Amino acid sequence: MKSLEHIDPIFEGLFSKISPKIAASFTDEQLKAIQRGFGSHVWTRHSVDIRVSFPIPGLRFYLVLLAGSECLSQQGLQYKKSRYPLLNPGNFILLTVFVTILLSCGFTIFCFLWSYEKQQELLWELGKIEIGVGTLVNTNQRIDAA
Hints:
two-stranded antiparallel sheet; 58% helix; 146 residues
């Protein structure tokens, strides 16, 4: 490959996959045009960049969460939506698992917060009302039966 002043890693990676004979056949003008085309993508760091790998024996899973300001044009956004649709089986399964975990955690926290002892603490903090656990149990049973 002919030498260019500033070779970026993406451009270099592309040419490492091309046979040396074909890469040597490009003119300097062609190389600069290709480099300009690939150089138009400015890669910046995202505000949120979380990448997690899950070591499951026999399987390789990873999860990436990226967030930042959108720099794509309207045409680029439309292309991305058609290439990576939001509604697909993998996303549906992931969202179902995520919502199930979130609801389970919420239910556990809710049950903890509304245990009889916590109800006693809340009544005491609100108005220095002292009620036994048995009274709370009976009251809750009457409310459930109503």
